Amino acid sequence: MSDGVNAGRQPVLYIPHGGGPLPLLGDPAHAGLTTFLREVTAGLPRPSAILLVSAHWEAAVPTVTTARNPTLIYDYYGFPPESYHIQYPAAGSPELAQQVVALLQGAGMQAATDPVRGFDHGVFVPLKLMYPQADIPCVQLSLVRGLNPQAHLAIGRALAPLRRAGVLIVGSGLSFHNLRVFFSHSDPLYSAQFDAWLAQTCAESELDVDERVQRLLDWESAPHARYCHPREEHLLPLHVCFGAAESESPVAQRVFAEELMGQRVSGFKWG
Length: 271
Hints:
271 residues, Protocatechuate 4,5-dioxygenase, Chain B, globular, six-stranded mixed beta sheet, single chain, alpha/beta, 8 strands
């Protein structure tokens, strides 16, 4: 996938994508996140393609989009009319999709393609801020039903070679995702404690790789884990990201650490 515009190894990003389309609508509670997403790609090598794992797609086996001109899926409800006219006309990349399938199968996993599915809001909302010209091909990769952390680490490990082929791997989720708490304006104490654990797990230089892996596998033992993630689909894109980074750059940099809708949320960059 290299096209000469990238140099060396691409980083890996785990980003918060916020609430529905709100980062694109000028929502005051998302101002910090919107600024972060607009600025996070500054200084990064330009990727030849993007592989994005969104919290909003689960399949029986890891599945990648193969449409050459993907549509958008407005998978949110109750927002202003303009929310359903957002456009992000990035091309797909069937070639990258087939490379993803080959890497997963080469690691002993089943994998599938989907020629119809478009990009959900976990893809087009952050990418519209990160790469507003929509001029970099993008492929979306599903999570796997059952949400097994070991399986998602393994997916990331299989995809690690893409980093040296010019592909930017992005995990799009939220490090805190409890909608009831978001809307009840609860105290951020519990989310701050989980966030501190997550930052230590990903970015503390004193931990070795095995310790990081074990903490991610046992994430439910973290402080207030199930309060912060009643269901873990918004966390597991981080596991894919760590798996992709583990062999060459296992220590992350915390590149976002703010309150979002009253709760503590982080984003990470590896290498």
